[in-house]
Amino acid sequence: xxxxxxxxxxxxxxxxxxxxxxxxxxxxxxxxxxxxxxxxxxxxxxxxxxxxxxxxxxxxxxxxxxxxxxxxxxxxxxxxxxxxxxxxxxxxxxxxxxxxxxxxxxxxxxxxxxxxxxxxxxxxxxxxxxxxxxxxxxxxxxxxxxxxxxxxxxxxxxxxxxxxxxxxxxxxxxxxxxxxxxxxxxxxxxxxxxxxxxxxxxxxxxxxxxxxxxxxxxxxxxxxxxxxxxxxxxxxxxxxxxxxxxxxxxxxxxxxxxxxxxxx
Length: 264
Fold this sequence. Notes:
Pfam families: Rhodanese, UPF0176_N
CATH superfamily of the largest domain: Rhodanese-like domain
EC number: 1.14.-.-
Family: Belongs to the TrhO family.
GO molecular function, one term: oxidoreductase activity, acting on paired donors, with incorporation or reduction of molecular oxygen
């Protein structure tokens, strides 16, 4: 990230009460446009979710404003924020959109601001998923799982995150599955999925803090339980250990052309 001409990418989210999210749209768009950032941000009453790219100084200014600036008034004080690099700008334009949910599940009982599963740091993840009584569950879409996943993970076989609750209703049982460990790309889907399972009576629900991207950033490849590449919803397509670009741009773009939408 020391090259001033490089592209810095920030992926961020937080579940937080934003009843004024409609009024926040234009100030946030103007702020990002002024920094010449590109990418997409979702705003909803339940929080914020986005990935933006630009010059390193501009991304740093964005991160400071979100967490400490007047725009959000300290409400994003627990922002999940990850940085990576791109060889070229991975987005074509800037979009700030209003949504009912920042990640769509369609379950009003799943409210991560009220209850959420136990966060597990990347450094402790291997020990958790190695335990024989832990059900390891990938909450991502089937085409993402096909690119890469953790050893032994269950693939729910869903085309969009909104189908996760249907999978859980049929395949998961609180009496049988006493300990569940979930993961997704950046952590946002797991937060909502864990809130959903807790509301359904599951006792022990864990999720990987910062998602696969944090794991690939922090855990050395020699110690990694990850196999394959991690799909990301921009023109880099997939990242590997150390958050290095994988060179899968063409195949990934074909997958997006088939209509697979952004879940996070």
